[in-house]
Write a structure and sequence with these properties.
5 helices; single chain; about 160 residues; Rossmann fold; globular; two-stranded parallel ribbon; about 30% helix
Length: about 160
């Protein structure tokens, strides 16, 4: 499958751009939640730009693209965030790549159930590969993103095949 490789430097620059887009939009953010594992680095880098020390993680054990389409499962939250971690907070939910939005939407629902005051969603890259594979159309599932791709996004932390 064709792909676009992103270096560590690329991802650092994209994280900065993403954080500035959120700031420029005027969205309130007092808590950043990185989707483990791949959203943790972009979340941490964005926290420096947005200037918040309240950085949390949420784990999604199964993502929609982990298996072939005929075997897809609903993403399962594996995190143990407490209500007091997010209740009344303005959260920015961050991942590296968003495709169908299933993982991000599951994490967003979990934050809603814990009483977040507001939730904005963000990803460095919107890869429309899964959209095309599922005959899905529509806008990006994230509120904020930096780049759009019609190929797979390859990041440096993925194992080489």
């Amino acid at each position: 499958m064709p792909s676009r490789f992103y270096s560590w430097e690329d991802l650092h620059a994209l994280s900065n751009q993403l954080a500035h887009r959120v700031l420029d939009a005027g969205r309130p953010v007092d808590t950043i939640v990185g989707i483990a594992r791949t959203g943790l680095l972009p979340a941490m880098l964005a926290a420096f730009v947005i200037d918040t020390r309240n950085v949390l993680t949420i784990s999604v054990r199964t993502t929609a693209t982990d298996v072939p389409s005929e075997q897809r499962l609903t993403p399962v939250i594996g995190s143990h965030l407490m209500r007091e971690d997010v209740e009344g907070r303005h959260c920015l939910l961050v991942d590296d790549v968003v495709d169908t939005g299933a993982t991000m939407n599951a994490a967003k629902r979990a934050l809603e159930e814990l009483g977040a005051a507001s939730i904005s969603t963000a990803a460095l890259i919107w890869s429309r590969v899964a959209f095309a594979r599922n005959d899905q159309t529509g806008p990006c599932p994230a509120d904020f993103w930096v780049e759009e791709l019609d190929v797979w996004a390859a990041v440096p932390w993925e194992p080489k095949s």
